[in-house]
Amino acid sequence: MRNKTHNSNQPQPPLTSITIHAVAEPTRKRRGEAAEAAFLARATHLGFTVCLPWGDSNRYDSVVELERGFLRVQVKSATLYAETRYRVKTTGASGLVYTSREIDFFVAYVVPENIWYIIPIQAVGSRKGIRFYPHTRRQSRAMFEKYREAWCLLDSCLSVRLRKSLPRRCRSKHLEIRCALCPQRG
After folding, report:
1. N- to C-terminal Cα distance for the chain?
2. Mean per-residue pLDDT for 112-129?
3. Is the residue at 77 inside a domain?
4. What is the DSSP letter of 11?
């Protein structure tokens, strides 16, 4: 029996999406592992290449790449809604705040809301924790809302990531998804 050769003129089957449901025991370590698995699933679904470092000795959990080179990502999650907010620590096990020498992005996953925040580490600054108010638009409280679902930042140059104002156009030419406040969101 002969093998059929691939003919690019023939219609191809549609791409399928694989969904990962990350479930964790109620320990910090397990919840962190589940958040990292969820990040891997979401980022690869969007078209990013995701590399995982061997072991857990690095200050970053993943390395992502689309068109702009490799970027180090630290993933954290929040599950507790208290006082109208979710809170995520921006420190590692050592208690030290992450810096731009160690990571490029701080990614926070608000599990009950299924919301991702893609935050350049420079925006975190020296804060030991950051708060997310997904149910309010008050500017004083919602300072990180502009990073909600901002996956396009992972495909943008450093100068774009550091802008304080909203962009006039999408930051990424390669992603179909638009961030929560993107002017091109449809």
Report:
1. 50
2. 92
3. yes
4. P
